[in-house]
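Q: I'm building a small set of examples for a reading group on sequence design. Run inverse folding on the following structure and report the sequence directly after it, with nothing in between.
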């Protein structure tokens, strides 16, 4: 997504792209935690007028193939310009059920 939009990258544009990508990521994680498989058509319906629709399938595929075991959700995040460069900060979360399992296993 970044390469395709390189000429337009500023903090506002980056927020738009990341917001879309994070929504796709979190949707895949939430569906997996519910024991479901999210398909591109279902997700595209949620973004009917969004300019990033062409990226739904590639993002779903990338998440599943490269990060399939990563069950963290993206929580708070922000983009800002710092010293002439874009600075992106994100926090990740796990579901309450997974948190309980991790604590029971002695992992925090």
């Amino acid at each position: 997504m970044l390469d395709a939009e390189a000429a337009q990258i500023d903090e506002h544009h980056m927020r738009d792209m990341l917001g879309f990508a994070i929504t796709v990521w979190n949707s895949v994680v939430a569906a997996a935690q519910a024991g479901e498989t999210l398909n591109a058509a279902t997700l595209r319906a949620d973004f009917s007028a969004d300019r990033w629709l062409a990226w739904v399938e590639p993002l779903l595929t990338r998440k599943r193939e490269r990060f399939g075991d990563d069950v963290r959700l993206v929580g708070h995040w922000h983009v800002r310009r710092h010293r002439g460069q874009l600075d992106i900060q994100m926090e990740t979360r796990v579901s309450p059920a997974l948190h309980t399992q991790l604590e029971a296993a002695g992992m925090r």
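The first strand starts at residue 73 and ends at 82.
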